[in-house]
Amino acid sequence: MNLPLPDVPEVRVVGLPQLTQGFDLVDRLDLPMHLKVHGPLAPVTGELLARLSEEIALRGRGGAGFPFGQKLRSVARSAIRRGVRPVVVVNGSEGEPACRKDSVLLNRTPHLILDGALLAAEALGARTLVTVVTRNSTEVSVRAALAERGLTDRRGQGLRARVVRTPERMVSGEASAVIRAINGGPALPPGRRARAADTGVGGAPTLLSNAETFAQLAVAARLGAGRFRRSGTDSEPGTVLLTVSGAVARPMVVEVPTGVPLRYVLRLAGAPPLPQGVLTGGYHGNWIDGPAVDAAVVERASLAAVGGSLGAGAILPVGPETCPLGEALRVANWLAAETAGQCGPCRLGLPAAAGGLADVIGGGGPAALEALREVALAVRGRGACKHPDGSARFVTSALSAFTDDLAAHVLRGGCGRETTGVLPLPLPGRRGTEESVPSGEKVLVDWTLCQGHGLCADVVPELIRIGPDGYPAVADAVVPVHLRGRAQRAVRRCPALALRIEQTQLPAPDTGRSALPYRSGGRAPAGGRG
Questions:
Q1: Contact at 8 Å (CB) between 283 and 392?
Q2: What domains sit in the chain, N to C, each tagged with a CATH number?
Q3: What digits encode the pLDDT tens for the residues 131-170?
Q4: Model confidence at 490, in pLDDT bands (50, 70, 90)?
Q5: Over the chain, what is the mean pLDDT?
Q6: How far, CA to CA in Å, does 502 sit from each of 480, 484, 492?
Q7: For the chain, what is the total number of helices (H) and then of strands (E)?
Q8: Measured distance CA(206)–CA(200) in Å, rounded
Q9: Crossing angle, helix 403-412 and helix 387-401, to 10 degrees?
Q10: What phi and psi, each to the nearest 5 degrees, are found at residue 444?
């Protein structure tokens, strides 16, 4: 079973490095080394910065892929119209278990990210810079980088800079959740849609983008549009960072020019020669089947053409030895537990979707498959944030990608393979007691005692529902902290004493792994740089 990815996995480069330049020299580029490797950066006016972003077709690298130049212009117009100073936010919150590219940048080249953020702040006339992180290692690195530049949150400075720490959760990285956390609230989507460009941190227009986006901006500002466009494709020039894990020999973050064949990236990480399928874009992304891998290159349009997505830059193959739908179920259960608990499509729909997938895998037949598709359709477009949409897309794309495996489960009751657990997930109970994070406990049913009263499903429908046979179907998911009280109440209310809550078995933590990759003599790992 796959353990969670380290904060800073192995880093490789295909071609010439841009974002990862200098990684072959040191583990972390402090300010003097950063300037030695990348050189100084001159300020740029807002119009020139927006034009540069448009000339290199820079899009957000956090998943949504919104054009950066358009976002920059929108914030500038709103700030001028309202006569207020805008705010710049670096979204370094990376709560998805399969993503580590932003953590690599924040840990190893934080000044490149700050270069891009400060460039945007200067162009917009912003006087506040906020960097949001989720992990201890990234917080330490960013605070050290701010100190090296003499940036603090004290009044009277030309620019005030601070770091905000959020829980390591899937929903905490959503833009509205990030702004809510900066404003002093919980790191959860607020349930209402508001454009950050109009009203964000403290009600001010806010330029919010993820860490890689600002690093790309800093690279482009140094190179210029012409040199930047020499690598990658015409429609999407430059390089991208990918986190490659799953069924691979060496989980890694790799910097590649766009246009590189997906098959080559998988081979670099030691993926199976003939994977059953590949999850592209992360746990809110899309599955593609094995044959589609040969037709895909690392580019948004190419991946979309075969049913995939670039998304948050996570690439996860699954090999022939595991049940791919079983792998999808593990993640679907985790996604259901990640709910913010604020809207029905998320709070009720995602556990129902995970339960429906379990029914399909368990031999529920065509009726279970049709019920699952109806649940996934009902969830889409109705959530308070994008978490229900992304989770439903993850499940339905698995049904489309693994048609042979699906037919085996629907028509024959199973595919005959175990679920080996190759997709990385957090260890249960390792993330503290923030609301809605997994508690490390599961609800179990003693079927020798259960009499089908159904009271438990009334108390906690997010975890327990009544199946077609009139008996409870319990989600095979860790109970979120915010549902522990109701789960315990369901146990107490069971007249047959058939329910119980048990602590899950936790794998031993890897205490020997350093936060940074092992290095010897300042040389890059064999076969790549960094």
A1: no
A2: 19-227 (3.40.50.11540), 231-318 (3.10.20.600), 324-412 (1.20.1440.230), 441-503 (3.30.70.20)
A3: 999 999 999 999 999 999 999 998 888 899 999 999 888 8
A4: confident
A5: 87
A6: 13, 12, 14
A7: 19, 14
A8: 5
A9: 80
A10: -125, 155
